[in-house]
Records
---
Amino acid sequence: MADAVSVSIPQETVNDESVRILEWKVPTGAPVVKDQLICDVETSKAVMEIYAPQAGIVEYTALAGDEVPVGAVICRILPGGQEPAEPALPPPATELTTNGATAAPAPPRFTPLARALAGEYGLDPLSFAPGSMVRRDDVLRKAGKLPPETPGKRPRKREPDNEDSRPAENLPVPGVPIAWVDLPRRKTLEARTLNRGRAMSLQSSVTAICRPKGLRPRLQKLSPGAGVNALTVFEAARLLRKYPVFNAIHDRGRIGQYGEVNIAWAIDGGEGLVAPVIRQTDQKSIHEIAAIMQRHIEGYVSNELSPSDFAGGTFTVTDLSGDGISFFEPLISQGQSAILGIGSDSAEKQEELLYLTLAFDHQISEGRKAAHFLSDLCRRLEAHGSVASEPSQSPDDERYCLLCARDSKALQDLKAILLKSEIPSGFVCSLCVGGGW
Amino acid sequence: MINAAAPPSHNKTDHALSRAFLIRSFEERLLKLFSEGKLFGTVHTCIGQEFSGIAVAEHLRLGDVIFSNHRCHGHYLARTGDVHGLMAEVMGRQTGVCGGRGGSQHICAGGVISNGVQGGIAPVAAGWALAQTLAQNGNIVVAFIGDGTLGEGVLYETLNIISKWQLPLMIVLENNGYAQSTSFSQTLAGDIIKRAEAFGIPGYHGDTWDPDGLTALMGRAIRQVREGPGPAFVRVDTYRLMAHSKGDDDRPRSEVEHYWSIDPLTQALARDGAQATRLRQDADDLVSSAVSAALDAPFAKCEPAHPYNIASPAWKPTVIEGRDRVVLRIHQALREQMTNDRRSFILGEDIEGPYGGAFKVTKDLSLLFPGRVRNTPISEAAIVGIGNGLAMAGMRPVCEIMFGDFLALAADQIINHAAKFHWMYNEQITVPVIVRTPMGGKRGYGATHSQSIEKHFFGLPGTQVLALHHRYDPAKIYQQLFRSIDRPTLVIENKSLYGEYVTHTTTPGFWCEHTDDDFPTTRIRSTASPDITILCYGGCLTDAEKALDRLFEDHEIIGEIICPSQLYPLRLDPIIESVKKSGRMLVVEEGQLFCGFGAEVLAAVHEACPGQPLLMRRQGAAPHPIPSCKPAELDGLPGVDSIVRDCVAMVLHG
């Protein structure tokens, strides 16, 4: 019988140091024939297909979504018919009765995460060994998402999730006079928040160019005083319901999805950078959002923002378009997984060019999903600008789409209709619903 | 062993004089040997004081016992005449009465037991006397102390108890006027005999310059004690003609010379030259032959106090019947023992019914076993000292120290007495004394009633330290202890555990098992391979179990608890077995970390696993006294949160 063969990422085909496993085409433990497609991996340039070098049983050593160094083993092909080794379990725990006899075996015990995952994969809790202790990896293993545990392996060592939050000593250039000035406490707090956010996430970003022609005049009509940023916050909040991975947090192999969309938005009027929070942004109208942002600005100027104004942010929007910045990569804040940056090109004010950059945590998402988020956002912002005629009724009239602000007349032209909506309270159009509401 | 030699039957005055010359000759030879470099350490001679021991020995019977002190040669020779045995002992030879292990100050033979610490022997003698009373055998006990001992508090604890309990103990105070170099005029207030009389003890007063009168006085005092009930106190004025031990004599020459002139042996040689000279010559010859014999004998042989060889641990599932609280299981074990073994005796503060002890462990026992469960004064040193004496005399005493903190008051009895006797006396006696005490905090009792100070009692060869917990039946620990006890045993009962239910049901998914030892190590494990070992004992187990649950539930970490019930000597292999599996160990203790249990275990595991990449940490009390303020107290002691925190940090970042 042939020996097991290890499958690794061939060096010659990629320039990267590592690749991402996009998708396994066969479950672990499944039989494959020679040259069968078993896996898609993503390089910086393209998707590469990996084929079985021989017939046998696939045993994963890496999971879909994993970054794998080039040359590293991603799976093994065991000789056909040889089952992957089951982890050797000690005798199952049983409830001991007082006379020493053994009664019915105790059911397996799950961690909350393992129980949730088992539900997700449709695994029967009782299909796990009686008395066993079931954790995330045990469920993933059972679901074929992880290779079987190797008996006698070294105890798992987990990588630290964050570095020492203390900044390393920064040495000045020698021989040059230097004057030290202590930073204001606000600045050090800000640095700590951003540092932690950065330390906990694997930040990446994508940028899209948005051309919402005629948006600003339209905004003036729609909600006087509301800026592009208010509209962007308004639309981003709704999109976050569709893309919950950006309204989330990554922690040791888990995604925590926030149950609320609370967008923080960055203000810096020279008094320092702050990011007050608009609570439950996705349930507020653009007028309400604009009003809250106005209150935040006034509070910022009069230094009357309270700690509660900064609490609970799950996503951040930062707008440097007013400063003539076109492109920048904002930093993800602690406890969040993404941040949206808005830039513009001052030279082309007439055309209203927006640069939208989404920085996201690559541990729980990837560029494609971020791209989808941005293209949805662009489409919605451009839709606002493209509304040719003004609403026949005032913006406060219930009979217009709360998402795209088209009134029923405009929608008629587009062969769309208004639908009654609970949240947000009012109406949304079938275009916006179809767009992934 | 310790049975006294038959009392002399021939002419009493001649016998006394010959014994006195024997003692004198023996000790003068010791001084000579010392100056020749043939003795170890030091010697304390009683030259000039010989008749004190002789006057007592005249009246003792076979079952009576003398307890003595650092200056014990005269008492031993007066009682036994065993020059060969004592000379070999002082010279550190295997042929000595204690195999050469005890030396000059520590002898145990022929009905004489001596120890080198001032005062501490008094409650031990009281305990032995109590055993004679309980046995109703008419035996009495004599304890020799010096005037320097009057400075020791434990003496007064003992005087109080022996009078209150009317014990057959005669205390003989040899007043030579000096505590080493310090005259008693500098250190003694009031009157010596009045001190004893204040406790209601009859006082007697004699001196060694009138040997016949002293012998008669001792006769009266001993008859009083033997006929009973109650103790006696005899003050014997005397004078030490030589230095306290060596080269520390700065008394005025004129004073010393005066006492040489009135010394009974000097006068006997002058008065009746021929006979006295012959007695002296006989004594010198006997001593010379003893020295020659001793010089030919091998030096003392020293075996470890704890031979300890055990193969790899065998684990058995723990099954505990019923569902009782820890306090009740201890109570039931004591009650069973009191019923089955009449040698059992419980003493301590406030332990009699209806109160039944500060933590109610002995509730009702005094009513069930009248006279064998006794309240004591607040005298921790005397409680343990009496326990020592009872145990040496063959009883099975259980001493309760109300709070573990107060063990400090009994430390001398544990460290310098109980722990030493068996080995130091060449294994001729055992001290099967049990000292039970509640340790630990989390009850808001403050700095002096909440500590865990057991670490100060670890590492005393010849003793054992046990710690109860609720995942192995405390009654079984006590039953086994009563069955097998052969050494002083300290049992730590954590306060916070008394109310816990004794069951084998631990956090779901985990089960309890234990090693196949007398005092087992408990392991709480699951089917999964552990990420970390949590080593704890006693009261920390409850928090460790909760942490085990949270580690799994909130952090997906599998822990394994190792909880020994025997802390000293500690069986390492169950710990090593677990830590080799997990690669990590957190040691949790409620005491101070410095030189503590965890420090010892980490060092020992490290030594036993050279080169292995083990991640090990300790967690204990914050380095300040325990505050009464309960939230602050909890903050400074290990708890569920701190255990979880450290375990997570070790697993994630280790």
Note: The interface with chain A takes residues 317-322, 504, 508-511, 526-531, 552-553, 556, 558, 581-584, 651-654 of chain B (CB under 8 Å).
---
Amino acid sequence: MSRHMMNNHWARSLTIAAAGALAVAQGVAAAPALEDVITGVQIDPAQISVSGISSGGFMAHQFHVAHSERIMGVGVVAGGPYYCSAGSILDAVTKCSQFVMLECRQLGLDAKWCSRTDLAPKNDRDARRVAQASFAEAKRQEAAGTISRLAGLKGDKVYLISAEYDAIVPHGVMDAVFHFYADADKAGVEAGNIAYNRTFPARHTMVRDAFNKPAADVVGNCALPPAPPPPTDRNAFIDDCEPVAKQRQGRDRCVCPSAPAVAANAGAVCPPAGKEAVCRDLQDVDLAGAMLRRIYGEQALKGGRVAVAEGEVKAFDQRSVFKKFSDIPYNDLQNASMAREGYIFIPASCRDGRKCRLHVAFHGCLQGGMTDHRSGQSGNLFAKFAGYNEWAQANDIVVVYPQVQVRNGTLQSPPVNPQGCWDWWGQYYTHAGYHTQGGQQIRAVAQMINTLAGGQELLPVPAR
Amino acid sequence: MTDLSKQMADWLRALSSLDASKGSEQLLNALARLEVPGLNMDALVASQRDNLEAINAANRAAMDGVKAVGEWQLKILQETVQGMMTAVGGLSGVGSPQQLVAAETELAKKAFETAVSRMRELAEIVARANQQAADAIVKRVPASLDEIRDVLKLPPPPGA
């Protein structure tokens, strides 16, 4: 074979390879920009709320505090108080969660030694002390002008839950969130505006019921101790707890007979004395609904729920969100550990010009972006199956699901985010200021809200 | 500025030797801001960072696999030694040479069966480790194909 022929052969192969690569590239074109997905949508700027689970719960509360002048309600599932970690990864995994203790036990180390790594608040006094420190930091940031004025928290609606068997974020940490909002010397949110569910029988998971539940085993069955939790690589951290709740309602005699039967059965108190709170907590078997109801009120959700196909959740390009405020959007997206795609659910009714409510739902660790690729599952499980969309569809609520994902950075080259969590500690992640309006993730989500609000600067997105 | 350009040269060397630990956020960001005609440096640097992280993760997964194999070997060694000690103790009570041969044969057969089942276990561990390592790389493929256009500033495909 002559040299000329060989060159030709190589050139031909290269061309075919390049054409092939481009053909595939066209097949995986990036998701559309957020503004292209939301054509026709109008948002009521007075009806914007947030919620989240686990690291997303930390983020929801943090985002609420940073932008309380515009956010009117919040739902926190197994999260923790503002600046709980005080900017330290070590505090994050010992004082604000039990990651170190759980890892320690998993390694089979001495149980007594392991329990010494659990520095979370143990009683009400501890929880108040943590809440005090947390609110003091909020005051400092308020004075520095890096978050909203804290008066913005007044009148807001708050739903909190710390499930009975949550081994990852202990009750004491959520108690501190409660005190942050409820105590008169802190946020001082009106008692009637706060619901705190502290007894629902579940592990660290997004609790839902069987309504519009997907087939197969995407949604877990709410296994409680002593049954083992599902293996982490198959656990979507979304569980149908309806059977468990029904069983407990029976056990605790929470199911009260109708009025005529009561008359016939005079004398029996229902629910039994001392069980009122437990029975009330057991009703929140559909957490997304419980949170939205607390935030927007019964009346606003009178449309109930309708089934929604998972394909109705649409992807948008999160890089295009960064393009609004960054000159290196691709790299800043990576610096913020955010995924290329975020997701949004838009009810059909919200395209006809009416003003819709806007809810931002933050997933937990291992639930976002490329991190959420469980074998045999379709991915993006939180946005599809956490239970928000069914309420949203029937009640004019747009739901945005911003996404973060694992980044395997190094200490020299952060972000280090091996579990794909939202940033609530800063160190080796998105750095100082992560809990302010200038935080890298908070800026991106604020920008999403602004884009949804027609491009106006409803929430400040400060330049770095 | 000499300092910066030297740092940049260092970083580029690190990049070519695929050592992710040498990059730093500030340097990567500075590099991403460089203006190079025809090239989207922001997309290029981002794409390289993704590649480095994928390899980083793959190496880590492979290391976990190696550790698992090491632990397995230790376990086998312990079991073998224990098995031999028991067997030797048991054989001392065997009477005739024929009985001894029969007992030894039986012992060898059992040892072989155990070894086979252990080999299968080992193969599974290795397969799982490689799978994890491969997954980290495979997850990058669709994204990197998508990047070709971004990096070279190609126009979007019709209808996209």
Note: Residues 3-27 of chain A form the longest helix (25 residues).
